[in-house]
């Protein structure tokens, strides 16, 4: 066991830390974790899970209880979409090896419980990680991040156990992380570096003389360095803070809103009330019509389509909320997803042909699609206001 390259041992004083690096879709990793816990008899087992992800592994049917209306009302649909895309990608990779994503982590929890060994959930809440990733990414790189996220839906790569074993080798991982860091340095900082710190803090503070930690292979080097060199770490609360959005964009948004309203008033003063009424009507028609077109393309319920038509002229004037919020919410009320659709959503999201068949993904389409043509309609309406002077 001690010669296994996926296991790293660290001795600090009278404490021994055993880091087991895994791939989350690997059968070999799952078996290695069970063997390590059985042979090492640690005082504590730490796993790269948070409470929410552990509950998902314990209860795979949690999806059936998802309240989409509540998620939309609480403005969490974007987080859900990111979770779905990432989960779908990992699940598809898991199908290549026949292993459920996270099986080795859940296996570690079960093995520890059966041996009456305390378990420490060492990872940061996934929702916090996603929110910090988004808030720390500059606005001009957010588009590339979204494109990269959704491009994973069309990645048909399959991986074997042999490929996973090669990827887990340290040199390969270091190279991959360096390349990722060049493209998205802020994302790497949140997804890898900060989580290395959070995981290392939990592992280092775990009770007992022998601590066994089961973590993704990509985190082993960072955690090892922190524990070996006893590096100072930020408080966990600091690593969980959500950076508030810059007020500049809200100020800019409300400034544009004020400018649009002032321009319509100016048209009335300069060209008469009839002309002001005409450009106002065009504003409603172009923005509302654009959003309605997007809702139709999304396959929205007729009431949701009507909502797009009515809401877009008003949401187009505010930086606080988009028309997709209202369209998705009405869609969720009018056509709530069936239980079976929650069960298959991580599979249906891979295939474009299924996006309109599954009510969950259709609600996501209702959230995303009305906004783009509404923006085009807004630009056309603004050009009309400008020409009216």
Detailed description of the structure:
It is a single chain. With 389 residues, this protein is of the alpha/beta class. It has 2 domains: 7-239, no CATH class; 248-387, no CATH class. The chain is built from 19 helices and 5 strands. It has helices at 27-40, 51-58, 68-73, 77-97, 103-114, 126-136, 139-151, 161-167, 170-183, 185-204, 217-228, 236-239, 247-271, 273-297, 302-315, 323-334, 339-348, 359-368, 371-387; strands at 7-12, 15-22, 44-47, 119-121, 210-216. A 5-stranded mixed β-sheet has the order 1-2-5-3-4, sandwiched between helices. α6 packs antiparallel against α10 (185-204) and α13 packs across α14 (273-297).
Q: Quick summary of this structure?
A:
This is Pheromone shutdown-related protein TraB. The protein is an alpha/beta fold and 389 residues long.
Shape: elongated
Separate helix tally: 19
Q: Can you list the strand order of the major beta sheet?
A: 1-2-5-3-4
Please state roughly what percent of the residues sit in beta strands, choosing from under 5%, 5-15%, 15-25%, 25-35%, 35-45% or over 45%: 5-15%
- In this structure, how is the largest beta sheet organized? 5 strands, mixed
């Amino acid at each position: 066991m001690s010669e296994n390259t996926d296991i790293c041992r660290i001795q600090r004083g009278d404490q021994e830390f055993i880091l087991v690096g895994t791939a989350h879709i690997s059968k070999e990793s799952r078996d290695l974790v069970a063997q390590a816990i059985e042979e090492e008899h640690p005082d504590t087992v730490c796993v790269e899970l948070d409470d929410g992800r552990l509950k998902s592994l314990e209860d795979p049917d949690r999806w059936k209880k998802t309240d989409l209306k509540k998620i939309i009302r609480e403005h969490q649909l974007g987080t859900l979409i990111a979770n779905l895309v990432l989960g779908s990608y990992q699940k598809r990779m898991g199908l290549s090896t026949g292993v459920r994503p996270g099986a080795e982590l859940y296996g570690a929890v079960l093995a520890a419980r059966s041996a009456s060994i305390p378990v420490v959930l060492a990872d940061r809440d996934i929702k916090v990680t996603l929110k910090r990733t988004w808030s720390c990414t500059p606005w001009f790189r957010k588009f590339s991040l979204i494109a990269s996220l959704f491009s994973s839906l069309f990645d048909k790569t399959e991986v074997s156990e042999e490929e996973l074993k090669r990827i887990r080798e340290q040199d390969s991982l270091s190279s991959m992380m360096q390349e990722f860091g060049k493209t998205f340095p802020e994302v790497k900082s949140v997804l890898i570096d900060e989580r290395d710190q959070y995981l290392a803090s939990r592992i280092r503070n775990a009770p007992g003389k022998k601590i066994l930690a089961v973590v993704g292979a990509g985190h082993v080097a960072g955690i090892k360095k922190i524990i070996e060199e006893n590096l100072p770490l930020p408080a966990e609360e600091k690593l969980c803070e959500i950076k508030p959005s810059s007020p500049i964009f809200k100020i800019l948004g409300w400034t544009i809103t004020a400018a649009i309203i002032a321009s319509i008033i100016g048209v009335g003063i300069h060209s008469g009330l009839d002309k002001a009424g005409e450009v106002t009507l065009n504003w409603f028609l172009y923005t509302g019509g654009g959003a309605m077109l997007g809702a139709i393309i999304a396959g929205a319920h007729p009431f949701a389509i009507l909502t797009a038509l009515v809401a877009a002229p008003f949401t187009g004037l505010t930086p606080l909320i988009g028309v997709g919020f209202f369209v998705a919410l009405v869609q969720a009320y009018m056509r709530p997803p069936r239980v079976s659709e929650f069960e298959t959503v991580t599979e249906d999201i891979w295939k474009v042909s299924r996006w309109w068949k599954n009510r969950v993904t259709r609600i996501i389409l209702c959230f995303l699609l009305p906004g783009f043509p509404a923006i085009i309609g807004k630009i056309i309406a603004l050009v009309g206001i400008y020409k009216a002077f």
